[in-house]
């Protein structure tokens, strides 16, 4: 069964354009690692106030996150992106993402 996952994070207001720019050209190795780790139909949406909404589909979110945590490319990406987020104290955004419970779905 496919698990649909939604999460929110907060991007620093003074770094919004740079955050957008970094995601215009996500490293091919990072894209490959996400796909190989089971992340499918993955999207990020960024509001003007910095609220970042993420959505992905996978078979098992905990397993998909663990598979990404095990990759070297993700460690490099997370280190470069950590300074963009509010409330993570420079930590890993993947560790800070908490799935929001789904209450309705219309297939």
Automatic annotation (TrEMBL):
GO terms for molecular function: racemase and epimerase activity, acting on carbohydrates and derivatives. Keywords: Isomerase. Its EC number is 5.1.3.-. Pfam families: rhaM. The keyword Isomerase applies. The keyword Coiled coil does not apply. Signal peptide: none annotated. It is an enzyme of class 5 (isomerase). GO terms for biological process: rhamnose catabolic process. This is L-rhamnose mutarotase. The lineage of its organism: Bacteria, Bacillati, Actinomycetota, Actinomycetes, Pseudonocardiales.
């Amino acid at each position: 069964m496919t698990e649909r996952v939604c999460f929110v994070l907060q991007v620093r207001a003074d770094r919004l354009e740079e955050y957008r720019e970094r995601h215009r050209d996500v490293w091919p190795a990072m894209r490959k690692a996400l796909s190989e780790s089971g992340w499918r139909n993955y999207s990020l949406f960024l509001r003007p106030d910095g609220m970042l909404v993420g959505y992905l589909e996978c078979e098992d979110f905990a397993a998909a996150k663990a598979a990404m945590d095990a990759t070297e490319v993700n460690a490099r990406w997370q280190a470069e992106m950590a300074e963009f987020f509010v409330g993570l104290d420079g930590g890993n955004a993947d560790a800070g993402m908490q799935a929001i419970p789904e209450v309705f779905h219309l297939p």
